Amino acid sequence: MGQFFRLVFIGITVLRFGLDEVALSGFRQGWVRLLVRVATIGRRSRLDAPRGARLRMALERLGPIFVKFGQVLSTRRDLLPLDVADELALLQDRVPPFPGAQAVLLIEKAFGKRLADVFEVFDTVPVASASIAQVHFATLKNGREVAVKVLRPGMLEVIDHDLNLLHSLARLVDWAWADGKRLKPREVVAEFDVYLHDELDLVREAANAAHLRRNMQGLDLVMVPEMVWDFCTTTVLVMERMTGVPISQIQRLRDAGVDIPKLARDGVTIFFTQVFRDGFFHADMHPGNIQVSLAPRSFGRYIALDFGIVGTLTDWDKEYLAQNFMAFFRRDYKRVAELHVESGWVPADTRVDALEGAIRAVCEPHFDRPLKDISLGQVLMRLFQTSRRFNVEIQPQLVLLQKTLLNIEGLGRQLDPELDLWATAKPFLETWMHRQVGWAGLVERLKNESPRYAQLLPELPRLVHQALLRGRQPDAATLALLAEQRRTNRLLQALLYAAVGFVGGVLVTQILLRWPGH
Asked: How far out from the chain centre does Cα 146 lie?
């Protein structure tokens, strides 16, 4: 019953903000459009705000889960018109903090002890508040300054309730929308479900941070806070306190002497290192989660915060993406089209030359301009639009990567309008590809596989023999022949040992006879 009333509230919100033309634009069933038009009789035929702004305001009214889903949808430029996607990209978690006294009770419940037994100082006024959790500064008993992240109370019930509705809506879209199969709404919601539940488990977030911290230790471009594992639970997370300037405060950074163009290039390097070297990347790199250190020992280095959402890529994903990027850099549109067919992203019967021509039409206008004026985000958006013609199936596992890449480019150009994202990324990708497919990559893979080879090589003759016999039962004659072969082998081995012993004995005798004194 609660879901029914929530669904009614969603429907009223959709109609109130005049979203029926957006919601119905892709539905095949005429009766659905007719039903909604009847329901909206008497409403103003024209609303003042643009449709994208109305959709954004509606999602904000529906609550934090829909806000987060709108943020994910903003990366799906293939699903939404550009004006709507641009508006959804402005969604922020504008959620007021819950009382500090309530945070204290939640912390004491999680630790099973009084707050004063854990912290020397605890600031009940939060320094940051979002839809999932809020953060307080504190000092441990040993004097270490920390940040304490506390999960909002009752979040799991609220999220599960709204996610059930989103799953139902995804099934409806998949059934009724013309592009439902290609856009995989159920898979996208399922991925969103996983990300949200990951955010609700603060131990998982701590593990993500620890893994990212290890990966980034040798890079010296970014700092990740250390987790205080003695005080990490599913609802409370205690980490090293990091002090820096929000990256959005560019003038303050410039006044402090930070090299802003280098900062922009470092951000690109960090992103491509995480994606192509590690296959594990921070997937929520908006300005609120990125700071810059002004401390003398770490001056100008990035500080990464909030690790609830991370992206992972398989080796196959990394190789496929790198080949696509390199083909774009070289303007080899035929190879891009072939990669789409080979990966199964387009139907196998797609004409490669037709897809090549469409990709060329998207990319050539950008390449004819100076490299610094090329926007990878714009190229991606045009490619998503073109993908409709060829029934390209969007891969849900790459949604976070698309979102993060657009965030990185936007952040980089905000720092340095002259940022040449492609020229910055190309040497990195070329080096990575050389390590993957060149001699260095071959040697590295042989080194990694050598323990397995050492185990398999002695067993190889037996495995080959078993493979030859597999699938048929040896008859009596074959069994007798095998037994005779084994007897013969044992006899030959005995003769060999005897011959070796005889020769060895003769040699020892000759040596002893010639030894002085004999």
From this structure: 27
Q: What's the full length of the chain, in residues?
A: 518
Range of the domain at 418: 258-437
265: nearest Cα among 372, 401, 424: 424
On the 0-12 / 13-18 / 19+ scale of CB atoms within 10 A, 466 is: exposed
Active site residue 284: yes
Number of alpha carbons in the 13 Å side-chain half-sphere of residue 141: 7
Q: Which of 37, 66, 93 is the last residue of a domain?
A: 93
Ranked by mean pLDDT, which of 304-308, 376-380, 483-487 comes out on top? Answer: 304-308
Question: What pTM value is reported for the model?
Answer: 0.71
The single residue of 162, 284, 317, 416 carrying the catalytic annotation is 284
DSSP H helices in 343-457: 352-367, 376-387, 399-415, 421-437, 439-456
Tokens of 242: 């990091």
User: Do 456 and 482 reside in the same domain of the chain?
Assistant: no
Instruction: Give how many domains the chain has, as a whole number.
Output: 4
Strands (E), 450-501: none
In the predicted model, what is the mean pLDDT of residues 40-54? Answer: 63
Establish if 224 belongs to a structural domain: no
Residue 135 is given by DSSP the state E
Among left, alpha and beta (phi > 0; psi -120 to 50; other), residue 438 is beta
User: What tens digit of pLDDT does each residue of 269-300 get?
Assistant: 898 888 888 889 888 777 778 999 999 999 99
| Residue 352 and residue 308 share a domain | yes
Gap between the Cα atoms of 288 and 93, Å rounded: 10
Which residue has 């398989």 as its token pair? 314
Residues 316, 334: Cα–Cα separation, whole Å? 20
Q: Are 240 and 234 in contact (CB under 8 A)?
A: no
Strand partners, 150: 134, 236
Token digits of residue 218? 């040798």
